[in-house]
Amino acid sequence: MIENEVSVEANVSEVNVKQSGHNYKDQYKIHQEPFYQQQRNEVQLYEAAYRSRLPVMVKGPTGCGKSRFVEYMAWKLNKPLITVACNEDMTASDLVGRYLLEANGTRWLDGPLTTAARLGAICYLDEIVEARQDTTVVIHPLTDHRRTLPLDKKGELIHAHPDFQLVISYNPGYQSLMKDLKQSTKQRFTAFDFDYPNAELETQIVAKETGMDAALVAKLVKIGGVARNLKGHGLDEGISTRLLVYAATLIKDGVEPRDACRMAMVRPITDDADIRETLDHAIDATFA
Fold this sequence. Notes:
Blueprint (H helix, E strand, L loop, with lengths): L13 H6 L2 H5 L15 H10 L4 E4 L6 H12 L3 E5 L6 H5 E6 L2 E6 L1 H8 L2 E5 L6 H4 L11 E4 L4 E4 L5 E6 L12 H4 L3 E4 L5 H12 L3 H15 L12 H12 L4 H10 L6 H14 L2
Parallel strand pairs: 1-8, 1-9, 2-5, 5-8
Antiparallel strand pairs: 3-4, 6-7
Organism: Sulfuriferula multivorans
Protein name: Rubisco activation protein CbbQ
Keywords: ATP-binding, Nucleotide-binding
């Protein structure tokens, strides 16, 4: 699945893209500030990386705020953001582009990576390790001093726009040796380690995101902590901040808290009867 994919005809050069109007670039801008609560100094560090156009890798567990952070930084920097949700079926052509056969001949369609390089957007490859390794190597020339993207099928070498930056993310917690980035890829990026916030900060985040009372949100966060302590002891992943937001949203809509917690925080993460019973007991004890 590729989000925000755009197509550009073969005869559209970078100059023509700029001249085609502000709306083409503006459609990828984030116009409303995404809510993001800084945990440490990651905002300032990202700004420093962007000033030098250094590639950025964001690592952390599912639902801890990686994508929200990238969206926030694109908004703060006032830069277009083109996001690609990577998957194992994605090919290099899905990233760079391909020729399409039409009634009057063939036409070249840029992929999202090529579009971002032409426009000067931030290109965000989400869960990069889900893509095949023979696909991810196409980003290498964009992530060193060359900042170029060869379109071999088209016979064109794109020099990235001065504003272009590449950002990737993945969850190192459940990656196997078969699904991990090569060192030749890792060592082309600066990197941030993300994790779930501490209980006090996470309570603030969920309360702000949902408009729920902080005292009730603190109970959800407490249950989330119980689940995270089970990681590696029956759970592959703990309850994410995203799922806490889902539970709070259901409660705000009138769903009984225990039902909301089971629906949003327990049933999505495990089918193991013993783990479910443990978490259900924690929910009942918290909302007794």
